């Protein structure tokens, strides 16, 4: 004996309509068959709901329903082609909307998110970007966030981390020396556009942090990892000091000290010097110092040692030369 599908109750119908109306407003035009498949309901229920929506709305100032107070559909498309398209919408126009500036800021953030490696839900993000653009109170400013160039080794390290396999690679250390490392990957993290892998270094018998663009000849071994995040204490901060770190004395605006807090040497306090302060930093290499200075233009001044000052000055000189070359070409 065939079983009958129970008819939806009033509460179920209301919940369905609360989902169905925004769906129609967002998709603009859809066939009855596609809408039924999307919600997993019979096609006839979709048709009944459309007819109900067409006589629904919000009363105007006169508290009576005028034509402009009701939803309307493309009746020709509905009756002759079994397609649904709203031609007049109500109620939703009174809902709060993002300003054009707010929408532009959210769009920029979503573009950055969609550019991150391993982001597989790009279709969902693209749909949300479209909704933000159409749903703002004004036209958002055109914003384009460049995609970060991420080392191709990131996917392989992520796979090794998932599979619990040891990795080996050649690493360029802070002294410019290349060393072969054997590491149990524990965590992948990023700072701005730089990506790092933290892992258990078997040669040094401790946790080390490696920047992806400084490693090469990466390969995933068949050796299972012997250390997991549960076995070792991973510090909250990405960068941990070591005996090989370089000490650099800088002068910086006092209110900018929190921006460089992770680089300040342990047990070191900023010393006032006029309207600014002097503080010692600990860095793995001068390349990191150059990036730090560039991220805070006019705020940080390198004082000691001379090698650090020379490294930043030479890097700045090369940047100015490239800028001059680009200007002459344009």
UniProtKB/TrEMBL annotation:
One of its GO terms (cellular component) is proteasome complex. Residues 154-219 form the WYL domain. Residues 12-133 form the PafC HTH domain. InterPro entries: CBASS_pafABC_assoc_protein, PafC-like, PafC_HTH, WCX_dom, WYL_dom. Keywords: Proteasome. It holds the Pfam family WCX. It comes from the Bacteria. Residues 247-320 form the WCX domain. This is Proteasome accessory factor C. It comes from Okibacterium fritillariae.
């Amino acid at each position: 004996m065939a079983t009958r599908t129970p008819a939806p109750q009033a509460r179920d119908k209301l919940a369905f309509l609360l989902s169905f109306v925004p769906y129609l407003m967002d998709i603009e035009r859809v066939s009855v068959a596609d809408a039924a498949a999307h919600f997993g309901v019979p096609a006839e229920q979709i048709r009944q709901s459309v007819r109900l929506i067409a006589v629904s709305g919000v009363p105007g100032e006169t508290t009576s329903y005028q034509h402009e107070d009701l939803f309307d559909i493309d009746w020709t498309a509905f009756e002759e082609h079994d397609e649904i398209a709203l031609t007049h919408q109500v109620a939703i126009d009174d809902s709060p909307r993002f300003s054009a500036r707010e929408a532009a800021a959210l769009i920029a953030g979503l573009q950055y998110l969609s550019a991150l490696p391993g982001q597989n839900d790009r279709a969902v993000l693209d749909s949300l970007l479209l909704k933000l653009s159409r749903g703002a109170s004004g036209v958002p400013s055109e914003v384009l966030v460049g995609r970060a160039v991420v080392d191709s080794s990131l996917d392989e390290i992520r796979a090794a981390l998932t599979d619990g396999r040891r990795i080996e690679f050649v690493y360029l250390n802070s002294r410019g020396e290349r060393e072969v490392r054997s590491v149990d990957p524990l965590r992948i993290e990023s700072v701005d556009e730089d990506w790092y892998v933290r892992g258990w270094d078997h040669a040094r018998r401790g946790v080390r942090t490696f920047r992806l663009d400084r490693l090469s000849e990466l390969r995933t071994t068949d050796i299972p990892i012997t250390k997991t995040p549960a076995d070792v204490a991973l510090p909250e901060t990405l960068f941990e000091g070591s005996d090989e770190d370089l000490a650099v004395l800088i002068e910086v605006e006092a209110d900018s000290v929190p921006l460089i807090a992770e680089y300040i040497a342990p047990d070191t306090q900023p010393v006032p010097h006029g309207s600014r302060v002097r503080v010692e930093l600990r860095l793995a290499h001068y390349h990191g110092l150059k990036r730090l200075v560039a991220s805070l233009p006019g705020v940080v001044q390198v004082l000691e040692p001379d090698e650090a000052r020379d490294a930043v000055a030479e890097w700045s000189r090369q940047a100015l030369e490239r800028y001059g070359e680009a200007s002459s070409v344009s």
